[in-house]
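Cross-posting from the chemistry board since nobody answered there.

I work mostly on the small-molecule side, so proteins are not my area. We synthesized pyridoxal-5'-phosphate and want a rough idea of how it might sit in this target. Sequence and SMILES are below. Is it possible to get a predicted 3D structure of the two together?
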Amino acid sequence: MSKALDAMAEIANLPRVRLACLPTPLQPLATLAKDAGVEELWIKRDDLTGLAFGGNKTRKLEFIIAEALASGADSIITVGALQSNHCRQTAAAAARTGLACTLVLTGEAPDTLSGNLLLDRLLDAELVFSPETDPHMALRQVVRDMSQRGQKPFVVPYGGTSPAGMVSYSLALRELLEQNPKIDRIVIATSSGGTQAGLVLGAKLLGFVGKITGISVDRSAAFLRPLLADLANQAALGMGHPGGFEPSRFEVVDRYLGGGYAVVGELEINAIQRVAKKEGILLDPVYTARAAGGLLDMIERGEIPAEERIVFWHTGGTPALFAYPPLES
Ligand SMILES: *Cc1c(COP(=O)(O)O)cnc(C)c1O
């Protein structure tokens, strides 16, 4: 077997706790495709991974929770924004596997809990609010306190982006190509980078030559591309594959950052309304609305050719719809 196939087989055999409903559906967006003027547009429904409203972190957590259990941990702890989808799915994964869960969230405790935050509480996570913009200091303190109390916490990295988490998206690419191998471009929202890095690693291992376009929701392409290359190389090396990823291999679009992370603007509101109206599918205000808005804009500008066969990867996040009052208007 080639090194690439060896690495793919190794990924498929990694310890894993089943949490997601897989494969997620791949559906045509016929009305939206016609409206936008492209021949083929599909949506990969990772908003339907099924764990407490689903999302892309569920795939990553299957491998991360397996690591946590193998390490003998009795609890997991992670960090995120107040409306973090990653934190909500981590809390649900902990509940499912009998682990305690602590979430360190950036910001002040709000008066009422809504969206993901409400679900975090329902899922029995302990919430620690950290006013610092860098919650990692608070995280280290909580880990120390837990250890002193005799608990054994396992730290789930920001966004579930560790080598173990990322490779779930190499497998997800294989799943997609089994559903439809004739794809010219995949478009996804990118943030901590694990999803995109995992997909690009999978593309190399599987020989997929289509484009993988990451639409950044918070950071510049100049920052993300070397980070994505590092992430893919780390994961590849862990599988005995030489890696060799360069920043230039990662396509990152940072033109749709608008007012910054989680600032819901015209682009996002229009995308949510258009996809809801044309397809009856809900996007989230922070990630998928920005990415879909960017995709539709790139199509309309002719930067994405009308004859390409495009997959928009829905990475979840829909509970945040219930936490953004600007959407009421
Ligand atoms: C976390 C998240 C992303 C980004 O995934 P990364 O692997 O962190 O780049 C995209 N969409 C949604 C809904 C998310 O919650």
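Reply from a structural biologist on the board:
Welcome over. Reading the output above for you: The first helix runs from residue 3 to 12. Strands lie at 26-28, 40-45, 75-81, 100-106, 126-130, 153-155, 185-190, 211-216, 251-253, 309-314. Happy to explain the token format if needed.
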